[in-house]
């Protein structure tokens, strides 16, 4: 009886799990601080994560540089607003409560029409407490329906797993510009070894000029060191077989 039931259900199980393994990830194009014309994309298939502003933390100051470059989009394009945070090594920031509050409000103050926010901050170990508190405040200030994402150094995903209890919906491991760790992470990707941090298993960030074999993820973010064109987008889709 049990064997007969398994035989009966086998085609259904194969259909379900087969569909999961062949599901294509959502493609997200990073649009950095330069003129970008992305009117050629299909907004139903591709999202755009654009650099909205850069925040510099210097001494006791919070210096904000808004996006000044034009961004042309196809009607209906879904947007992720990216905020880059940088600390000045020459004028070491105090990371004070005032800086924390101002930075959080700048990030949470992106237009409400943006359905997702992403923070790009290569926080040093000494800056992690500040970053953790920053994410907590931003998450509290954002609408509940807004997704909060961060970019993550690949070492964060394979190291001490400090990302585990952050107030975020997604961490995007950056699988390019890896420096001395490049070969180590390339081997990991080639063998299909998952990241130790569960927060890093649903998305991945790649670049058009450093092709790698990305892991199976829900969202694939793609960076192009030059302005996007229809040809460079087509080439990227061919490289990553999406």
Jot down its keywords.
single chain, about 240 residues, alpha/beta, TIM Barrel, nine-stranded mixed β-sheet, two-stranded parallel sheet, about 30% helix, disordered N terminus
Oligomer type = single chain
What's the CATH topology label? TIM Barrel
Instruction: Give me the number of helical elements.
Output: 6
| Average of per-residue pLDDT values | 89
Name given to the CATH homologous superfamily: Glycosidases
Q: Tell me, what's the shape?
A: globular
Q: Beta fraction of the residues?
A: 25-35%
Number of extended strands: 11
Largest sheet: 9 strands, mixed
CATH architectural designation = Alpha-Beta Barrel
Helix content: 25-40%
The termini sit apart by 43 Å
Molecular structure report:
The chain has 242 residues and is of the alpha/beta class. The chain has one domain (26-239): TIM Barrel (Alpha-Beta Barrel), CATH 3.20.20. 30% of the residues lie in helices and 28% in strands. The chain contains 6 helices and 11 strands. The chain has helices at residues 2-22, 97-108, 128-141, 154-158, 182-191, 230-239, and strands at 26-31, 36-38, 46-58, 61-66, 71-73, 79-87, 116-120, 147-153, 170-174, 203-207, 219-223. The strands form 2 sheets. Strands 1, 3, 4, 6, 7, 8, 9, 10 and 11 form a 9-stranded mixed beta sheet that branches. Strands 2-5 form a two-stranded parallel ribbon. β6 (79-87), α2 (97-108) and β7 (116-120) form a beta-alpha-beta unit. α2 (97-108) crosses α3 (128-141). It starts with a helix and ends with a helix. 29% of the residues are buried.
């Amino acid at each position: 009886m049990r064997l007969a039931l398994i035989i009966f259900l086998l085609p259904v199980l194969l259909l379900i799990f087969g569909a999961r393994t062949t599901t294509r990830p959502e493609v997200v194009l990073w649009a950095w601080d330069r003129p970008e014309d992305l009117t050629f994309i299909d907004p139903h298939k591709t999202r755009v994560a654009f650099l909205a502003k850069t925040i510099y933390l210097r001494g006791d100051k919070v210096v904000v540089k808004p996006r000044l470059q034009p961004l042309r989009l196809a009607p209906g394009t879904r947007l992720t607003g990216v905020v880059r945070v940088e600390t000045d090594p020459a004028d070491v920031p105090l990371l004070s409560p005032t800086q924390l509050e101002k930075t959080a409000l700048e990030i949470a103050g992106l237009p409400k029409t943006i359905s997702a926010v992403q923070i790009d901050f290569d926080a040093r170990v000494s800056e992690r407490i500040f970053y953790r508190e920053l994410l907590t405040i931003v998450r509290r200030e954002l609408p509940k329906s807004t997704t909060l994402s961060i970019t993550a150094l690949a070492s964060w995903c394979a190291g001490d797993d400090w990302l585990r209890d952050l107030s975020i919906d997604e961490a995007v491991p950056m699988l390019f510009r890896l420096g001395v760790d490049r070969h180590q992470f390339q081997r990991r990707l080639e063998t299909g070894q998952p990241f130790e941090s569960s927060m890093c298993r649903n998305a991945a960030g790649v670049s058009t000029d450093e092709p790698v074999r990305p892991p199976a993820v829900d969202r694939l973010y793609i960076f192009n060191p030059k302005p996007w064109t229809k040809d460079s987008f087509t080439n990227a889709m061919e490289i990553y077989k999406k």
